[in-house]
User: Which sequence fits this backbone?
């Protein structure tokens, strides 16, 4: 989930998925914004993982595999 989506923020969408709809899925927030606030907000909205674009792709892929 990117944090910058055209209709609503990715963090708001994550909140909808995890808290309101209570869908049984994992959400990885993947963003180009490099701010500590985003990491905290991602956790608060229910995201399971948070990655900054440009992070080590091996770790990102390992996380995705673990969630599948």
Assistant:
């Amino acid at each position: 989930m990117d944090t910058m989506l055209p209709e609503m923020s990715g963090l708001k969408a994550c909140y909808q998925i995890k808290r309101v709809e209570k869908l049984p899925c994992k959400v990885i927030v993947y963003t180009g914004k490099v701010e500590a606030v985003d990491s905290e907000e991602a956790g608060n909205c229910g995201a399971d993982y948070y990655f900054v674009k440009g992070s080590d792709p091996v770790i990102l892929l390992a996380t995705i595999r673990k969630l599948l």
